[in-house]
């Protein structure tokens, strides 16, 4: 739908800062969205505005109360964006830090000797927290292997490892290495079928920018987002906690309310920028649908984003115009297969005869920003089983264009 409206693509791009020019490099194509998406111009304006306000939220003055209203609105906006009718949203240091806090809290409140289950596809944010607190709390860590060829983990794989003793589970919603999205609802059903009261924590950091979050449908207990990967800015993370996770004993000030999780004064501007993000999805949904309600427009935006990003990755893989796609280049190998329905705006690949850092450097010299993943503590769990030392990651968002993909293909084709 977006690909059929050139004027809409231009309107989308006009809302983002540095969409085609880097302030340090000059003109460039931005295919590094998994490392941090472009920022809405409104987010920059909002951040600057709230950064200058000296008042403390909650004080008995108009500014203090006004900041409280800003935070309340942002939480209501997030509830609509994620379709959550219960639980609470909190802001922390980063998405990674919030995953650690949620996983730690779950682990210290379940019986010793019980199990925590996770997968080999996960980012080290959740895997590290799970291993750390399994060891500290004497829990048995159960590792679910992912499908190396498809770059995903399935509900069936979880089901094979599930037992009633599993009390905590972690799930990755989208992989920043393979680019594939997991079927959260189906995985959760497989877990709860065997262990109904299991605490389930989801890493939604990579998935959030691609739309379509439905917490009421997932039946999980925690969900983490890194706002800088969903059109906001660096410096904070957002998490949603279910009512029962919120009420578990956790680090907090003595005498604080039972469900208080935030430490110190929060940045009202951070919350306000999430309202900007939600407003953007609302606007986009109105451009691609006639949905009457705000949630309906957000859902329509998510569907349109997914459809357009699938169009872009298909063009990258199978070619555009007279340019061959990555799958047609004999010197290129694609991770996760050429035709993978789980793909979410990202293609990782290798080039025969070149290291991935060399490929990235060559592309950067032509004004095409990509990134290399190495078989280190961030990506080794995915690359090592494939026998790879590294890979090139092209990560797209819905403000990218088919013309940008064509320039990328021409550059990679010349590397033969």
TrEMBL record:
Entry keyword set: Aminotransferase, Pyridoxal phosphate, Transferase
Molecular function as annotated in GO: transaminase activity
Pfam families hit by this protein: Aminotran_5 (PF00266)
InterPro entries linked: Aminotrans_V_dom, PyrdxlP-dep_Trfase, PyrdxlP-dep_Trfase_major, PyrdxlP-dep_Trfase_small
Gene3D superfamilies (alphabetical): Aspartate Aminotransferase, domain 1 (3.90.1150.10), Type I PLP-dependent aspartate aminotransferase-like (Major domain) (3.40.640.10)
SUPFAM superfamilies recorded: PLP-dependent transferases
Protein name as it appears in the record: Aminotransferase class V-fold PLP-dependent enzyme
Organism: Histidinibacterium aquaticum
């Amino acid at each position: 739908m977006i690909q059929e409206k050139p004027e809409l693509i231009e309107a989308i791009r006009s809302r983002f800062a540095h969409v085609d020019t880097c302030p340090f490099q000059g003109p460039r194509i931005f295919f590094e969205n998994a490392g941090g998406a472009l920022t809405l111009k409104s987010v920059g304006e909002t951040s600057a505005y709230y950064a200058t306000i000296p008042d403390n939220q909650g004080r008995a003055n108009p500014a203090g109360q006004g900041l409280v209203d800003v935070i309340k609105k942002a939480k209501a906006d997030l509830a609509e964006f994620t379709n959550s009718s219960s639980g609470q949203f909190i802001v922390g240091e980063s998405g990674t830090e919030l995953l650690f806090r949620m996983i730690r809290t779950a682990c210290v409140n379940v019986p010793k000797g019980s199990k925590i289950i996770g997968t080999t596809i996960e980012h080290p944010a959740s895997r590290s927290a799970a291993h750390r607190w399994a060891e500290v709390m004497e829990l048995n860590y159960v590792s679910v292997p992912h499908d190396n060829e498809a770059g995903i983990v399935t509900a069936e794989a979880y089901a094979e490892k599930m037992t009633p003793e599993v009390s905590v589970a972690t799930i990755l919603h989208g992989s920043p290495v393979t680019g594939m999205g997991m079927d959260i609802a189906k995985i959760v059903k497989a877990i709860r079928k065997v262990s109904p009261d299991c605490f389930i924590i989801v890493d939604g950091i990579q998935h959030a920018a691609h739309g379509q979050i439905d917490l009421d449908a997932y039946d999980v207990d925690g969900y983490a987002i890194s706002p800088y990967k969903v059109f906001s800015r660096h410096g904070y993370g957002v998490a949603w906690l279910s009512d029962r996770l919120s009420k578990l004993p956790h680090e907090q000030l003595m005498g604080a309310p039972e469900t208080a999780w935030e430490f110190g004064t929060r940045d009202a501007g951070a919350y306000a920028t999430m309202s900007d993000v939600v407003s953007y999805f609302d606007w986009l949904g109105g451009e691609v649908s006639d949905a009457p309600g705000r949630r309906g427009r957000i859902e329509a935006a998510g569907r349109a984003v997914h459809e357009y990003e699938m169009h872009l990755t298909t063009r990258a893989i199978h070619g555009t115009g007279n340019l061959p796609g990555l799958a047609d280049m004999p010197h290129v190998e694609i991770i996760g297969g050429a035709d993978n329905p789980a793909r979410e705006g990202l293609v990782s690949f290798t080039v025969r005869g070149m290291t991935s850092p060399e490929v990235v450097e060559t592309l950067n010299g032509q004004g095409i920003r990509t990134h290399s993943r190495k078989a280190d503590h961030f990506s080794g769990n995915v690359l090592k089983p494939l026998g790879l030392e590294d890979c090139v990651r092209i990560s797209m968002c819905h403000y990218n264009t088919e013309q940008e993909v064509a320039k990328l293909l021409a550059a990679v084709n010349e590397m033969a």
